[in-house]
Amino acid sequence: PLPQVLDDPHEVERSGQLNVTKIAQGGRKLRKNWCPSWVVLAGNSLMFYREPPRVAPSSSAWGPAGSRPESSVDLRGAALAHGRHLSSRRNVLHIRTVPGHEFLLHSDLEAELRAWHHALRAVIERLERE
Ligand code: I3S
Question: Which ligand 1 atom is nearest residue 32's CA?
Fold first, then answer.
């Protein structure tokens, strides 16, 4: 059977492979540690998985079978910006959540990062209206 996440009714807005580093936790700066991550945007959350799913991602199968994300953040009230001032890499996004957790998302593929930017902005704006 396909791995399904039946206890989460939220539709997946976007998922894919990105390089991720946390740069602050609760407002405290952290040392960068870039790691590849399978990132899933659904509902009000951005979730980070160590591994991509074993089947093609779809709205009903998006996390690795039966696994919980390694970490996840609430996007309500989050701030989204270009991360170019925070990294020497091209195509970097910066997310800061209300509790002061900050992440950089990076892709070598400019179109991929732009699509993430649009998807994240749409979700954050929708949450502002709710
Ligand atoms: O913003 P920084 O401190 O220049 O970020 C770079 C460092 O974190 C570096 O690690 P060490 O200083 O622990 O060796 C990383 O390897 C780099 O990837 C970081 O810079 P980029 O520009 O890739 O975000």
Answer: 8
